[in-house]
Design brief:
Blueprint lengths: L28 E3 L4 E6 L22 E6 L7 E6 L9 E10 L6 E12 L1 E16 L4 E8 L8 E7 L6 E10 L2 H16 E7 L10 E9 L2 E6 L7 H10 L2 E4 L5 H4 L9 H13 L3 E8 L7 H4 L3 H18 L6 E6 L6 H6 L3 H12 L4 E6 L12 H13 L6 E4 L2 E2 L4 H12 L5 E8 L4 H17 L3 E6 L23 H12 L3 E5 L5 E7 L1 E9 L2 E9 L6 E4 L3
Parallel strand pairs: 11-26, 13-14, 13-21, 14-15, 15-16, 16-17, 17-18, 18-20, 19-20, 20-21
Antiparallel strand pairs: 1-4, 2-3, 3-10, 4-9, 5-8, 5-10, 6-7, 6-9, 11-23, 12-22, 12-24, 24-25
Helix pairs in contact: 1-11, 6-8, 9-10, 10-11, 11-12
GO molecular function, one term: endo-1,4-beta-xylanase activity
Pfam family, one: Glyco_hydro_10
Keywords: Carbohydrate metabolism, Hydrolase, Polysaccharide degradation, Repeat
Length: 564
């Protein structure tokens, strides 16, 4: 079922008037107690040259910007009214542009773009987040925001740029708001996917006249790209969950059962009954499991008895956790998230020093050398969390590796709302410079409208599948009533598959290759297939033969001898 949200929408048209300031300050006004707006020109060598804004062919930042001065607080800045009827409901809008701070500002400060939606009276006004950056003096930072409205504004809307402390001047260049054309983006991604995930294959059956014209059938058995889902003791008792999971997912991860607060809720009382049972379930169904997680860096996620330990005993407890978990399960988990969410939490680092995170990685590798060790965090792919930018994530990985930590992968949790493909792709492009594999480790797409949810899910999955750095996607649940975030399910509580769940199935089918035909006069059968394992069936006058083979990455055609 197609959503009707695109009716009457002009895609990629900027709704902000005088965005590049050709008409001075026309359309712009101070916000709050801001006392001064002025148009300035950036020095040519300081104008940004790289951008993810591909709406206009050949677009480059104009170099003209608004300086908002005389600000008395974080709510002050600049604004522009957006006429009624301009913003459409159920449409994904991107917010683009460049943000900086005035000369003399010290350090980084968060600057936000918000959309104020007017209702019937001031008390009904709604503020919708449109993006945020960590801005600093002497540098332009590109804003990569996104928003969607559930209903049409009753009497118009306005874009607000605000943030940074009192007295800090804010600079805004080329602010734009435009509706994204998802269909056009998907068309580009299909072409990219064909290049990244497929390869030409030539099956050679020999030049014998006995095989010329023989029927051949090629079936893909599994894919090199991993799809997984999280499980817990309750969901594996649900027949509808087990049916969908075993049919459509290749990997698993435990929701909470491997976390320290679960396996040792009380000091010294270790309980591995739940992870043991879940591992047994996965073994029976042939599903490898990601190990999530050994530690959790966020203070509120650390159990009280751990927090109460003096530092020397905390060090011993960390070592005890590593030894207990990794000796028990050595070789069982191909991946480990070592210290979860280090961009958002520093509990162990604050207590035990800057080297503790690297120690966790090194000791994990010593105790279980076959596992790939991941960093894992949230909001990195969304562009709206100043604390979790791709640049900060890369800096964290580099700092760990400089201390000898064997970081083997980058986890993007993927708890997303209103995703924009271009923003996700930009994050993936940056993270790919580390040459580490990237996984989406906890994907859930939250949207109450299940039709839009299906579209949102497709946005994320197509971006991930089309990107060469990404090796897998794991969903953080999929069944209603058994998910951390509401309005994200693929399967309803009664076991019926909703639009989002069917969209997932359809994409998996699209990314699976099957072919059939006849052996040509040269004894060959040619097809282009997705990376993965295959079985070919050849029917000749003397009988049928089967052969298994794999299609790996490669720029040249894969030529296989059928040994007929």
């Amino acid at each position: 079922m197609a959503c009707s949200c695109a009716q009457g929408v002009v895609f990629d048209a900027n709704v902000i008037r005088n965005s590049a300031l050709e008409d001075g300050l026309a359309g712009w006004a101070p916000l709050g107690s801001c006392t001064e707006l002025s148009v300035r020109h950036e020095e040519p060598e300081k104008v940004p040259t790289e951008t993810i804004n591909d709406v206009e062919d050949g677009y480059r930042p104009s170099g003209r910007y608004i300086l908002a001065a005389g600000r008395g607080g974080e709510e002050d800045g600049l604004c522009q009214a957006i006429p009624a009827g301009t913003l459409k409901p159920r449409v994904t809008y991107r917010v683009a542009g460049w943000i900086g701070l005035g000369d003399g500002a010290a350090g980084e400060h968060a600057v936000r773009v918000n959309i104020r939606v007017d209702g019937e009276g001031k008390e009904c006004a709604l503020v919708v987040e449109g993006g945020a950056v960590c801005a600093e003096a002497g540098k332009w930072t590109e804003i990569k925001g996104v928003f969607r409205l559930k209903a049409s504004p009753a009497s118009g809307a306005a874009v607000h740029v605000q943030g940074a402390p009192a007295g800090v001047d804010v600079k805004v260049m080329d602010l734009q708001v435009f509706a994204t054309d998802r269909k056009a983006r998907f068309k580009k991604l299909r072409k990219k996917t064909d290049k990244v995930r497929k390869r030409d294959v030539v099956l050679n059956a020999g030049a014998s006249s006995a095989v010329s014209g023989a029927s051949i059938r090629v079936m893909q058995m599994d894919t090199s790209f991993a799809f997984g889902a999280c499980i817990n003791p309750a969901v594996i008792q649900e027949p509808a969950f087990v049916d969908y999971f075993t049919k459509h997912f290749d990997w698993a991860v435990f929701e909470n059962e491997l976390k320290w607060y679960h396996t040792e809720a009380v000091q010294g009382q270790l309980n591995y009954a739940d992870p043991d049972a879940l591992l047994d379930f996965c073994d029976r169904h042939g599903k490898p499991v990601r190990g999530h997680c050994i530690f959790w860096a966020v203070d509120r996620m650390v159990q009280k008895w751990v927090k109460d330990l003096p530092n020397d005993q905390l060090t011993a407890a960390v070592q005890g956790r590593l030894t207990s978990l990794l000796t028990r399960y050595a070789g069982r988990f191909p991946h480990y998230d070592v210290n979860n969410e280090m961009l958002h939490g520093t509990f162990f680092q604050d207590r035990l020093g800057d080297d503790i995170n690297a120690f966790m990685f090194k000791e994990t590798a010593r105790l279980d050398p076959g596992a790939a060790l991941f960093v894992n965090d949230y909001n990195v792919e969304g562009g709206g969390d100043p604390n979790a930018t791709p640049e900060k994530y890369i800096a964290q990985v580099n700092a760990l590796m400089e201390k000898g930590a064997p970081v083997g992968g980058i986890g993007l949790q993927g708890h997303v709302t209103n995703p924009a493909g271009e923003i996700i792709c930009d994050a993936l492009d940056k993270l790919a410079t580390t040459d580490l594999p990237v996984w989406l480790t906890e994907l859930d797409v939250c949207e109450s409208d299940v039709c839009l949810r299906a579209e949102d899910l497709e946005v994320v999955l197509r971006e991930a599948y089309a990107h060469p750095a990404v090796e897998g996607v794991v969903l953080w649940g999929f069944m209603q009533g058994h998910m951390w975030r509401q309005d994200a399910c693929l399967v309803n509580s009664d076991g019926t598959i909703n639009d989002a769940g069917q969209r997932f199935i359809n994409l998996r089918q699209e990314w699976t290759s099957h072919a059939r035909g006849k052996i040509d006069s040269d004894g060959n059968f040619k097809f282009r297939g997705y990376h993965g394992s295959y079985v070919v069936q050849l029917a000749t006058a003397t009988g049928k033969m089967h052969k298994a083979f794999s299609v790996e990455k490669g720029d040249t055609p894969l030529v296989l001898d059928m040994d007929v």
